[in-house]
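During the reporting period, we have paired protein sequences with backbone structure tokens. One record among many follows, to show the layout:
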Amino acid sequence: MSDDFNMSMRKFLKQVGVTSQQQIEEAIRAKGNTEGQSFEAKVVLTIDGLDLEHTVTGTIKGQG
């Protein structure tokens, strides 16, 4: 893979990670005390033109 491809992919994935974390933290703060709670999370990545749909699921634990 070319350096340009790798850099653009890494930049996109970094943006996804950073902005997703910000949104999750904001939602947790807005909800208040979430200690002892768990939240099921799902991310669906689609890329037009590549016929790609990739799903990642997991659990995020709340905080006090």
Summary: Residues 33 and 64 are 5 Å apart (CA to CA). DSSP finds one helix and two strands in the chain. The chain has one domain: 3-61. The radius of gyration is 15 Å.
